[in-house]
Amino acid sequence: MGVLSNLTVTVLLISLSLLVASLHLLFRNEGRLVRSVHYDPNEVTAHKKPGSSSYYYYYYYPGVPKSDGPPESLQRSGTSWQTGCSVAPQSRFDCGRDRLLSQEECEERECCYAPLPGSAGPPWCFYPAPYPGYTMGRLTPSERGQTATLTRASPSYLPKDVSTLSLEAMDETPGCFHLVLKDPSSERYKVPLPAGRPQTEAFQDQDALYTTQYQHHPFGFVVRRKSSGRVL
């Protein structure tokens, strides 16, 4: 009986020691547990995957440093992650117009890299939004149409920026719209085309087969067929 009692006491002491050690480890690592339920919703961060309508989520728990980027799984997918890369494919502005760029070369230009299925279509390497474009001034009447000045407030990603551009829009005929964008500070070759009619001799607006619409910032314009509204 004495041997059995000593064995029982020894087993109880070992069990108690293991329980104390387990509780110590549990409390020490409590902040590092990845919990599947009862997490704090204020600690959930959702990010939109560039060029996609889907979201991925990553969580922050006490004791685990916050990450400024996406999970390692997204880093391995060959997709850039930086501010401004969530651009719809149809709105991408090609950052590799001079040549085909790898992901490393694309990101060296501080551009976004997000592959798409197929080799044709929207560019994989594109400028982050908002792209620093031009701002269009007020349209004013001219002898042959309308003119406006475009200005750039911040530099682009390409060298030899032109800070000011001149725009001239001319309604040549009911079916012909003539628009010129040029650097007013330098001369360039001009194709010898017949001069348009002066504004005083031009046709009335209601005779035109097209409509024009301008966006002032960032600058852009759209020419549509009046009968169908189709963009030309």
UniProtKB/TrEMBL annotation:
The keyword Transmembrane applies. PROSITE patterns: P_TREFOIL_2. Gene3D superfamilies: glycosyl hydrolase (family 31), Spasmolytic Protein, domain 1. The keyword Flavoprotein does not apply. One of its GO terms (cellular component) is extracellular space. Coiled coil: none annotated. SMART domains: PD (SM00018). Residues 83-129 form the P-type domain. Signal peptide: none annotated. InterPro entries: P_trefoil_chordata, P_trefoil_dom, P_trefoil_dom_sf. Pfam families: Trefoil. Keywords: Disulfide bond, Membrane, Transmembrane, Transmembrane helix. The chain crosses the membrane at residues 6-27. This is P-type domain-containing protein. It comes from Fundulus heteroclitus.
